Amino acid sequence: MGIRSITRSGFASPPKRELIRAAVVGMVIFASLVVGLALGLRRTGMLRPELIVAGVLAVSCLPLWPWLRRLEYGILAILLAAGLLNILTLPTGTQSRLVLSMVIAAGCIGLWLFKTVWMRRGARLKPSRINAPLLAFIGIGFVSYAWSTLMRDPTVYVWKSFPIVQIAALAVNTLLPLLALFVANQIEDVRWLKRITWIILGLGAFAVVSLLFKLPTAAAISNGSRGLFATWVGVLAYTQLLFNRDLNRLRRILLLALFLAVAYLYFVVYVTWFSGWIPLAVACAAATLMHSRRLAVVVAAVLAVYLAVNAAFYFNDLVQTKVNSGDLERLGIWEQSLSLVSLHPMLGMGPAGYSVYNVSYFPRDARSTHNNYFDVLAQTGIVGLAAFVWLLAAFIRTGVATRRELLDRPGFELAFASAALAGSCGVVVSMMLGDWVLPFAYNQTITGFDNAAFTWIMLGAMVSLHLQQAGARRPLEVERVPWVTP
Prior knowledge:
2 domains
């Protein structure tokens, strides 16, 4: 038999007959699921026109999936959907709705796993520090879901929609880390990192103009621009100015204007929103320190003088505003959360699980923690939190290693690596202020996938850049692939 063609990634292309067979089988399975879902929802009165349209489009597009070679376009589509298509959502039968960015992400990740695991038998993930903790965290999430269902306190009140919400929460907590893994393994060219960067910066400019001038277009990006969106826009623009020597004058002017506009919007206009400007400030401080210790000292001195002059506002008026709004009552909420965690310390109360315990044990004060660390602890226990912290540490270690490799090559890659590493510092801080990395089902709801997707895509892109640098240093090796026959 002849040797079949080998793709650039090192795997041979499967024969056309097998692709057709896979498309037909996939179409039948997917069509069956859609029809079954439609019939089930019709009986409950939840069948809506948008569900029918989405099902028809999905089934009609399915035969094209096996021929889709550039899943990188899916990554760009997730970013654009998260930033511009907030108002187009699908019903779930609960108060939360399904955002298109999550639908596209599920489709791309599913297709990637299908092509990698089923069509390329024996294929493996690219070696990376994040693989073990990421897969461990996802696995613990499923174990915690089963544990919480079997071992739930029988006196806890469970409302009708909770099982659906819990599955949706498990899906979000699984898809977001998988999104980073997908990006890390799929992107193999710096050009895609540039496209990601300019799309985020473009969305940032769109958001800033819409919010500053209170334009109707603000509704299109209102959900996507929450959370760490401002941090990624600001730090990407800032690091390109600091580290990219290849920028022409026009791009420098535009990036400077965008950075100053973001700084004004979040440090002045939205100064009472701590989750908006504190992670941005941490990320920019980290990037400044990476660039120059002298510059960091100068900036710190200027900020100290500014805070001294405006001390009355920042330490009196601003704090008093937060006290009046109840934002500083979170210590009591966290203490309450820990008392619930003590019931299931190792594996937690399952995805979104502590909400039913809260309602049952503290009916007059049942609130979410507004803290991702406590959310992860309550949902997956000590084991899950340990895996998640391990994952964060792996991302940061990867960012440090990547930036170290690029120090002698100031350009886009160094700027991007610096932005990803500095943004990771902002991520670590932001998780203390809200559920901006893994949106909680009863706080942001699953629509928080829109703004959280930016973080996980950037973290995955950082790992992708590290893998590209490692591949450039390693000599090309001939690998035995399952599609080649002697």
